[in-house]
Design goal:
Aspartate Aminotransferase, domain 2; 2 domains; 11 helices; binds pyridoxal-5'-phosphate
Length: 365
Amino acid sequence: MQREPQTFDRVLSSMCTTPHPVAREAAERFLATNPGDPGTYPTISSLEDEAIELLGEVAGLDDPAGYVASGGTEANIQAVRIARERARSTAATAETPTVVMPESGHFSFQKAANVLGVDLELVPTDDDHRVDLEAVRACVDETTAMIVGVAGTTEYGRVDPIPELGDIAQSVDALLHVDAAWGGFVLPFTDHEWQFGHAPVDTMAIDPHKMGQAAVPAGGLLVRDETLLDELAVDTPYLESTSQATLTGTRSGAGVASAVAAMTELWPDGYREQYQRSQANAEWLAAELAALGYDVVEPELPLVAADLPQATFEALRETGWRISSTGSGELRVVCMPHVTRTQLESFVAALDALESESETPTATT
Ligand SMILES: Cc1ncc(COP(=O)(O)O)c(C=O)c1O
């Protein structure tokens, strides 16, 4: 029996979304191409160049270099790899290179540290879930290969102070990596300082397959200077091309083609409109949850966290709502492009009904 993919009508926890129709169509057309072998597949290879140009526009970078990765995880791993290789060749010390990251950083950096043999040093965040700069200053030294700043954290949608992190990175000759995997397609329409034009950012993760509305897999790794990619390159004797900087070998052209299609269609006006819709939805939901008496973390970007009783959270999941929680146990709702006001209204109605049920006194004899 042929199985159908699930619908998105109750999905509030995901950072993936329905691809834009032009992205879906492009993904289907380029499904059987391999940008990992650019000499043999030149069309998808030139589309990848376009993807990087477009990502550079989104992230304020002239002459961008990089590639379309499988997602934010790969982009983060590769950024750490760049920093490790650079540290190995230039470091004043033979000690294990370290990566300094706020505790709000994505778990993909734990994988990076594990695979690459670097030490991950987590620094605390402040009361508003942004990295504590004093703690970063106290943590860095000559072993620091990279500082990570998050532009749109996974749990609370917060943006670390990227220019200040850049200053600290420069003071110890470390690279600054910005993880904008989720935030990169909404931040251009805010006042936040997060991108290459705002700070000495060296590398960035920015994923078309999240708020960029491309089909999965379409992550993005951008580097300010093409020589940073050389840290990753290996020779490729049996291919028509001579070297490869990606982590995977064969890659689907679907992600590349769909990223170009989505960005060509939506940058900048379509993304701006989507950001406004998503942000308005997040603010509406935050106000509704606050009115129901829950503690809410203000949505600075389209992501709402609120302190719901565990039993209510579980009851919502049992009725089919796909919701997740933060490490501290708050409900976390990501207002992705597929999340509509109507959907959120049904969610709040379901929540309200559960709360009324639990308040109804049981009959006594
Ligand atoms: C900030 C951030 N970075 C990286 C990732 C990992 O991205 P992916 O799941 O595409 O590998 C995520 C995923 O949600 C994320 O929120």
